[in-house]
Specification:
Keywords (chains A, B): Acyltransferase, Amino-acid biosynthesis, Arginine biosynthesis, Autocatalytic cleavage, Cytoplasm, Multifunctional enzyme, Transferase
Oligomer: homodimer
Distance between the termini of chain A: 42 Å
CATH topology of the largest domain in chain A: L-amino peptidase D-ALA esterase/amidase
Number of strands of chain A: 16
InterPro entries (chains A, B): Arg_biosynth_ArgJ, ArgJ-like_dom_sf, ArgJ_beta_C
Largest interface: A-B, 65 and 65 residues
Strand content of chain A: 25-35%
Main location (chains A, B): cytoplasm
Number of domains of chain A: 2
Site (Cleavage) (chains A, B): 191-192
Structural class of chain A: alpha+beta
Largest sheet of chain A: 10 strands, mixed
Radius of gyration of chain A: 22 Å
CATH architecture of the largest domain in chain A: 4-Layer Sandwich
Pathway (chains A, B): Amino-acid biosynthesis; L-arginine biosynthesis; N(2)-acetyl-L-ornithine from L-glutamate: step 1/4; Amino-acid biosynthesis; L-arginine biosynthesis; L-ornithine and N-acetyl-L-glutamate from L-glutamate and N(2)-acetyl-L-ornithine (cyclic): step 1/1
Chain lengths: 405, 405
């Protein structure tokens, strides 16, 4: 338990921690032996919001989830499979995604539009619907076990990703939990990043939508492993109101506290994904201050963590500030060479458009850690931003150059 | 000698092939034993144009070249060193670049503004001006030997890069030669891509400027090795008129032929750079047809060759069309999933938003070659474009993760 401020506390837990939520995972046979079908179920319909991939090739399950959410903006369950992304699968793929939704809804005895669908795995292959149907029956009997859902949604990930926070809203304790999968922003053959957030807070729909969009931009959208976007990316938040609080709106005095909690959950999951990037050994955080505005700060931060040369330098524990300058110099943001300052682990490496003397030994030791922060001051304005990535290693090549199996 | 059309013939040669140009290279001691200082010299002042890096951290020699060109738009020589980029070197760096220009001008007995300066190598280190001065004296006595200039400008490149074409303009034979260096679009620690083009054609200044900018956009700007732009990138073209042709303007009937020649030279050099990308074993060309316009076609083509996952798939000889879809899907251009067709080595892999049956064996054999073409049809309009890159291999990590030496 980590006390972050008067209002917000990090607790052990995940998507099934908020009141009224359960989460399950089973093995239905899409993968050889690992769990491959999971679900989050709320005891009451939950006000929900989602953000989807911007890819032109949006996968079938995302279309079905959009159709469900369009009805009333509430969901009671989400069903997720791994192994097969059900992307680039034409009309049959769309039919299958609807069948997956309707089958699970019927099993739960609820309206189909109360169910969202999500898939992750290989692109261009159809789901084995017999296995999915059998899996849906299994899900009905499966107990809500901690970690089973998180396991069922993994593909090339090496660890499960969950987080949970508690905060007090008008005297009521509310909980926000999250789960995610993803080992890169893009693996078009292993498509890709999913995030699920649950909360027992009562939240007004439009406020939840706005908050999710705003927070996604500074959390999930600020991570990069290999620079692109998959066909299946989705972040879904469900708020079932079981905490009994007064419904949160953007005018509620505790709205900033709730948003802060939601942001912490999304940020934790985003960082976990970057840290677990394919082949990665280190999490890299770029912090940019003094940009013209926050947007430009975020663009530069993402340029830094997205640079193959910065990533390989961090892997090689090389305090190669020239590569950081390269990444900053290349961005469309306002940058004045003479005003830029670059810091690594507290040491200033570059200032007044000239290299600064620094201890290479200290820098090398700092780069040997598993969390690296690169800080940049631009002195253009008051914008700040952060982004997260990982180092680029031989294992990234190994994972991605080996033939599909 | 390759006859391309009635007007244009590819010949053996380089920057010293056009009449009135000589090119030299010497070892002045910035590198341990390899040539590290070179120059192109014209017997007459040449109408010249240049394009420069868009980086916010433009290196000192580029500022000096801009100052020279600003005077009258003519140059008679360019001096280039490798090993030290003279970038991020503050006031002293700028002073050194001027000294390099003025020293060489005085050695040649011409006005300083007739000399351009270019550097490539490590960022953030000052030039050893004693060595440069001694090198300038050596250049005075050095003979014009084929290949010496091309060698002197290399850094991590594994091969020299030159090309040459002949064409007939109003009855006169004119020659266009080119040399380049660069093993990646960016190596901020090895900054970076330089291109030099010479021609004995007489060309009007504004027409030459316009043509260089237009052609750079579809040649040098359409290659990527690791996705970024260095502090020292520059392409310079010098036209000395020694062929004796009527001065070429945009209205001249042979202007399109000259532009075609200039484009062939730039494209050859650009492809040579992509092919020699750090760690690369293959050249990848992406051809996009049927885009809304040429700009969008170029954007998508560059997305494809820039994708780490496409690059690793090509290295692994894996016909992983899902990664091509990922790269296309991610672009801001107009794309309709149902209309997209993806081809590899003549086989259609993807169509009607569904995978197409294809021979994996044939695809694997095709990918085992050293020039790979990925073709995409969008059916949105009549725009077409191309881009070039290389595969991403273990050696890229090895080269870039090893500590600076």
């Amino acid at each position: 338990m980590i006390q972050l401020s008067e209002e917000i506390t990090k607790i052990k837990g995940g998507v099934s921690s908020p009141k009224g939520f359960e989460a399950k995972g089973v093995h239905c046979g899409l993968r050889y032996s690992k769990k491959d079908l999971g679900a989050i179920i709320s005891e009451a319909p939950a006000v929900s919001a989602a953000v989807y991939t911007q890819s032109h090739f949006q996968a079938a399950p995302l279309k079905v989830t959009q159709a469900s959410l369009k009805k009333e903006g509430v969901l009671q369950a989400v069903i997720v499979n791994s192994a097969i992304a059900n992307a680039c699968t034409g009309d049959q793929g769309l039919k299958d995604a609807y069948e997956m939704r309707d089958g699970f809804a019927s099993q739960l005895g609820i309206e189909p539009e109360l169910v969202a669908v999500s898939s992750t795995g290989v692109i261009g292959e159809l789901l084995d619907m017999k296995k999915i149907q059998a899996g849906i029956e299994q899900l009905g009997q499966a107990p809500s076990v901690s970690g089973a859902f998180e396991e069922a949604i993994l593909t090339t990930d090496t660890v499960t990703k969950q987080t949970c926070y508690e905060l007090v809203i008008g005297g009521d304790i509310i909980t926000i939990g999250g789960a995610a999968k993803g080992s890169g922003m893009i693996h078009p053959n292993m498509a890709t990043m999913l995030g699920f957030v649950t909360t027992d807070a009562a939240v007004e729909e439009q406020a939840l939508k706005n908050a999710l969009r705003e927070i996604t931009d500074v959390s999930f959208n600020q991570i990069t492993v290999d620079g692109e976007t998959s066909t299946n990316d989705m972040v879904l938040v469900m708020a079932n109101g079981c905490a009994g609080n007064d419904c949160l709106t953007e005018q509620h005095p505790d709205w900033p506290a709730f948003k802060k909690g939601l942001k912490l959950v999304c940020e934790d999951l985003a960082k976990d994904i970057a840290r677990d990037g394919e082949g990665a050994t280190k999490l890299i955080e770029a912090r940019v201050e003094g940009a013209k505005n926050n947007l430009e700060a975020n663009i530069i931060a993402k340029k830094i963590v997205g640079s193959s040369l910065v990533k390989t330098a961090v892997y090689g524990t090389d305090a190669n500030w020239g590569r950081i300058i390269g990444a900053i110099g290349h961005s469309a943001a306002s940058v004045t060479a003479e005003q830029v300052e670059v810091f690594l682990g507290g040491q200033c490496l570059f200032k007044h458009n000239e290299p600064q003397p620094f201890s290479e030994t200290d820098a090398k030791e700092y780069l040997s850690g598993d969390e690296i922060t690169i800080a940049v001051r631009l002195q253009e304005g008051s914008g700040s931003g952060r982004a997260w990535g990982c180092d680029l290693t031989y294992d990234y090549i190994k994972i991605n150059a080996s033939y599909r199996t």
